[in-house]
Amino acid sequence: MGERKLDVRMHDTTVGIWQDNPNDPTFKTEIFDGLIRLLRSRGWKVTRDAHTHRHYRCLSKHHRMARKGNLRASLRLSGRAIEFECWTETWQKVNQNGHRYDFDKRGRFDYIDRLRLDLEERAIIATLRAGADVTVSRSRPSPSTGAITAMSYIEAGYAESWHSYKELGRPKCDQAYNGKSRDGFQIEHGATVWTTDFKGRIVRGTALYNINNMWWVVTGPHGLLNQACHEIYVEQPEDLRRKRNGRARRNRLERELAQAVSSHHYSRAETLKRIIFGDEPIYRIWSRKNDCFYAPQYCGYTADENRAGRYTRAEAEREVRRVPHHLHAIGPDGRREDFDMAEAI
Question: CATH for 144-233?
Answer without folding.
Answer: 2.30.30
